Inverse folding.
């Protein structure tokens, strides 16, 4: 009995450690005083002012667009990569897996710097022939797609390995075209992997700061880089309000996803 | 070329081009800049610059702090992952859910929140003084940086450990018990060895970001303590010396490569991947 409650206390302490800053931020979002260290009474003002703050709203828009597009494109590339790898030999497969894993295993600062060097060099070369190419939305998007590809592959590949090739061949024998056979037979089996890959990539993109920091260029901001520039002058309390809203929305969404009854899954 | 091959190439070519252009070429760029000077001539100066006292000190602090953080993460996470893996009621989903959820709050803000918590007049010190205990003085010290590293990367240790521990077949453990092993021996001879892939994966996932961070030291170290990540970041954003920054990055990558090779040796099937 004592052993069991000790276990519970241990889990509780770790959860407290992980959630303490989050609780702090939620409390701060209701703090009427602008400084972090003082409690100035309860207020909803920051939630109202948040929606009038154009800088934060545009950073939020950028963050969501980059996350959505990069997760989508990275998932498609991941799917193509997994299919392509099936046609390679053992050596080719481990070479490609090795290369695609680099952005995940390498330090983010190195990935960020290497992409920045590439983009600035491209900019230099294009500048000589009179084409303007600057760091901004496109370079951030390209970088996010690149570091999201390994997460997509990681989610899809295990599903791909479980596939039974004879089902696909049976579909072909029964007269389906390659595309139809893939769409009707292979894709449904891969779908859980594809959707978890997409979610993973989306999360990684939203939370990324370091790679965006190096590849964004002046004038383009996501929420992370906006917060980083605000760190020195002091974070606007609207930011706490926004992150509280995001946290609550994600919490509810994830709760709903995890609570869906098992039956619809079986029907699929 | 037959039709089947052509359609395959049409699909896979953009993928290969993409990983070539945005993964392989950028790495070559770092090596190019790292091994040349401003005139484009070959030099080793940027690499050997790591041995300069200023850089070397930053590297040493980074290595020491990230090793300490990795050890603390491991010691905290292993018992937790073990307890969680034994709980049969809670599905895999819920565990992942609980430990992934904090990542949805921006990590800069979460780290900043720690500043509010551990400040001299912060929340924790408020509690401590109310209880008549001595105040914590860790903000802007190495301790605060370790705290930030452990906090940010602990989930990356918990998840792979939990994944490998949850996969251990209970009948293997039961067999050991039937053959007369006590709990300690069962753990030492069965459970621990089977969880090694998870341990290696967790160590990699905590050590690499801790070693290379510049944000945590910026926020919790009061920008007085420079880690190697801070030095490299400043070479690119403030000093604009890409050659030196690249050279230092190459040295940093050596640590990561050693780590990657180790994890490949121990985790051949990639079974311990976090999610």
């Amino acid at each position: 009995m004592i052993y069991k409650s000790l276990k519970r206390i241990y889990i509780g302490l770790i959860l407290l450690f992980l959630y303490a800053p989050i609780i702090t931020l939620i409390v701060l979002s209701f703090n009427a005083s602008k400084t972090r260290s003082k409690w100035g009474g309860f207020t909803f003002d920051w939630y109202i002012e948040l929606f009038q703050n154009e800088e934060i709203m545009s950073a939020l828009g950028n963050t969501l667009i980059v996350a959505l597009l990069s997760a989508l494109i990275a998932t498609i590339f991941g799917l193509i990569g997994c299919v392509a790898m099936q046609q390679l030999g053992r050596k080719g497969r481990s070479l490609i897996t090795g290369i695609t894993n680099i952005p995940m295993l390498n330090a983010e600062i190195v990935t960020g710097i290497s992409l920045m060097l590439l983009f600035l060099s491209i900019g230099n070369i294009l500048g000589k022939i009179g084409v303007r190419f600057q760091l901004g939305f496109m370079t951030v998007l390209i970088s996010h797609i690149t570091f999201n590809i390994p997460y997509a592959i990681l989610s899809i590949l295990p599903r791909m390995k479980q596939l039974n090739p004879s089902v696909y061949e049976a579909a072909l024998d029964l007269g389906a075209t390659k595309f139809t056979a893939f769409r009707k037979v292979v894709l449904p089996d891969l779908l859980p992997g594809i959707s978890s890959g997409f979610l993973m990539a989306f999360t990684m993109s939203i939370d990324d700061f370091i790679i965006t920091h190096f590849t964004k260029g002046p004038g383009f901001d996501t929420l992370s880089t906006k917060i980083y520039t605000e760190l020195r002058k002091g974070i606007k309390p609207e930011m706490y309000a926004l992150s509280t809203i995001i946290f609550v929305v994600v919490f509810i969404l994830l709760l709903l996803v995890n609570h869906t009854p098992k039956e619809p899954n079986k029907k699929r | 070329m037959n039709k089947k091959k052509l359609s395959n190439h049409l699909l896979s070519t953009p993928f290969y081009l993409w990983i070539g252009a945005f993964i392989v070429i950028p790495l070559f760029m770092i090596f190019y800049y790292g091994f040349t000077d401003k005139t484009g001539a070959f030099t080793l100066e940027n690499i050997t610059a790591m041995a300069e006292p200023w850089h070397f000190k930053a590297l040493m602090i980074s290595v020491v702090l990230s090793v300490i953080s990795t050890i603390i993460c491991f010691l905290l996470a292993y018992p937790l992952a073990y307890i969680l893996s034994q709980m049969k009621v809670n599905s895999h989903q819920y565990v992942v859910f609980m430990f992934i959820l904090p990542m949805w709050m921006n990590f800069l803000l979460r780290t900043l929140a720690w500043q509010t918590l551990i400040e001299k007049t912060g929340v924790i010190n408020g509690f401590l003084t109310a209880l008549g205990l001595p105040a914590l003085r860790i903000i802007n010290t190495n301790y605060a940086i370790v705290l930030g590293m452990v906090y940010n990367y602990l989930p990356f240790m918990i998840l792979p450990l939990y994944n490998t521990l949850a996969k251990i077949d209970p009948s293997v453990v039961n067999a050991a018990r039937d053959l007369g092993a006590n709990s300690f021996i069962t753990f030492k001879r069965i459970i621990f060895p089977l969880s090694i892939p998870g341990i290696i994966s967790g160590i990699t996932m905590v050590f690499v970001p801790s070693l290379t961070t510049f944000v945590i030291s910026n926020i919790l170290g009061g920008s007085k303590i420079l880690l190697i990540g801070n030095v490299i970041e400043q070479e690119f954003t403030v000093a604009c010396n890409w050659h030196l920054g690249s050279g230092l990055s190459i040295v940093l990558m050596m640590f990561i490569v050693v780590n990657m090779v180790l994890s490949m040796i121990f985790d051949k099937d990639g079974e311990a991947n976090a999610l």
In short: Chain A touches chain B through 72 residues (CB under 8 Å). Chain A has two domains: 1-51+237-268, 54-235.
